[in-house]
Amino acid sequence: MHVVVTGQGYVGLPLAVRAAEVGHRVIGYDVDDRRIKRLAVGESYVEDISAERLLPLLDSGAYLPSAEPGDVTGFDVAVITVPTPLRDGVPDLSYVESSARLLAQHLRPGATVVLESTTYPGTTEELLAPLLEEGSGLRAGEDFHLGYSPERIDPGNPQWRLENTPKVVSSTTADGLESVESFYGQLVERTVPVSSCKGAELTKLLENTFRHVNIALVNELAIFAHDLGIDVWEAIDAASTKPFGFLRFTPGPGVGGHCLPIDPSYLSWRVKRALGQPFRFVELADDVNSHMPDHVVRRLSEALNERRRSVKGSRVLLLGLAYKKNTGDARETPTARVAELLTRMGAEVRAADPHVAVGAHIPEPIIAGQQAAEYDRHGDPLAAVRRVEATPEELAAADAVVLLVDHDAFDYETVELHARYVLDCRNRLSGANVDVL
Predict the structure, then answer these.
(1) Pairwise CA distance, residues 192 & 206, whole Å
(2) Res 373 pLDDT > 60
(3) Residue 189: what pLDDT?
(4) What whole-number distance in Å separates Cα of residue 434 and Cα of residue 412?
(5) Residue 72 gets which letter from DSSP?
(6) In terms of C-beta density within 10 A (0-12 exposed, 13-18 middle, 19 or more buried), how is residue 300 classed?
(7) What's the CA gap between 149 and 399, in Å, rounded?
(8) Rg (Cα) of the chain, in Å, rounded?
(9) DSSP readout, 119-134?
(10) Are 121 and 198 in contact (CB under 8 A)?
(11) Positions marked catalytic
């Protein structure tokens, strides 16, 4: 089949590559010309897609990255995987709308369109369908199939990849569900059909809200346990021995990526707008998790005061810029907030991360359009942070080291040996010079 995937980021690129690998002709469409140029020469900015996987597909013509709108013509299946950011707490679906208008111009009877971007329940039927119908003159469910299948990409996870992670699928009609399930059934080992697009949209938000709320629980526990003189990590380890009724979550310096800082707010926004009710669990979790970087800085300030040092003038080395371990994905990373607060307080902030390239913390690997203009206007929020390697000399020269992301690539023995003081936000280190969050 001729497949079009709009958006070639952390979700769209793996999907496009997988579809090409199973034998489809795939157009990977993205509005960012810089991103497309990198892909065209086999340079992947998504860690889960190697050049070794990308180059043979480019050479054979099975996969064509393109920024040309005309290249999406004639598709049998189109999948929308574009960003859905928040703007002042309100869902911004402009990228979904742009994709819909583009695909509508080339939509043919019998084709299938699937939305994968995370959004609020009702988006597929109430927003996407009318745009496709208006631009094509065709009717969803009658002339073309329409569905929703939430992405479940976990960057850097070597165990659970696109192909072996169960894929939730849905459509507006029974025939459409058969088409959507048939397509994804070629890409993944197992599909999980649900009865409606709204149900599938809620499934994704439920998964992320579950994590968001439970992380907030242990984050707040970590704050209170420290004030009470209790080792929260020991309690978590002990609770984790229970073989039923408990799932392990651990504290950290905050949450990042697209899923937790953003996706649950889509559900909260939808509930408030449609029902006039607050989603209190989500709002509370947002409040707790968003303030964890502030707690990290408070803990660091207290530790420096105990050592007769002020934050102002202190040299602080941050270990980890990504939002999760062993990846270069730095979207919405809490490290940016920690660095901002410390810089405002007059600290000399340095940072080390073996996975994150300079500038890679921006909302998407490459940005375009309005986002690019905003980035150019406001600049890199970590631009004032000097990037270094975690050498013995850098560790020893720092008044304080803060472990924010526990990449396996860090040499923890070296950190313990050379750092004068460490605030460990991941419970990875030990020693007299180490405090644990």
Answers:
(1) 16
(2) no
(3) 97
(4) 12
(5) G
(6) buried
(7) 49
(8) 23
(9) --TTHIIIIIHHHHHH
(10) yes
(11) 259
